[in-house]
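Entry: FadR family transcriptional regulator
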Amino acid sequence: MNAPVDTPVLPQRRPRNLAQGLVENISERIRSGEIRPGDKLPTESEIMRQFGVSRTVVREALSRLQASGLVETHHGVGTYALEPSGGGDFRVDPADIATVRDVLVLLELRICLESEAAGLAAVRRSETQLAEMRRALDAFKSALDSGGDTITPDFQFHLLVSQSTDNRYFADLMSHLGSAIIPRTRINSAKFAHEDRAAYLARVNLEHEDIYSAIMRQDAEGARAAMRTHLSNSRERLRRAQ
């Protein structure tokens, strides 16, 4: 393995999402050859210091890079760059999700994928995974009540559902997309829904609870229906706004 690569902060436009900004920075350096296959990336702490981001942001970025096949992590050793794959393979780039139309197209994909993921999760989830979903929803409710960050627990809940399918491809796709799947990271969803922020997020919270309840009951069809309703509601609100 080659020595760790020095990764200074590069001048760039402010990213729409901190994790995605970090993904774009490292991805570009790998694809350009500045970071070569086999080069060891700096530690999480060093990336946090150089880019001025939290450990959560760094871990989300590394997870997306790993899902994209650009790096691999050896636990207890470090993260290493891989040979970039050819440009012809299928790829969903979170950086391209910028308009209402982009969000609508992604929601159509998510309705198909995540509805089935919820059904599989209801059958295959473990008690530990169910408890983690409960903690994510509790964190969402707490942030809703305090006016804090609801995006992180929102994404965490959807990611946990995908992980509970016991099918790594569901989880890999969700990890790659990251919090870009949450419409309000790209647009003002409450404004499009013609509601104030608290009312809009309260409805999202209830829809999440319906999904969780079905998964807890191990009701596969109920979980599929609840997830489809949740994502379809988001899609219809945006369609009406257009």
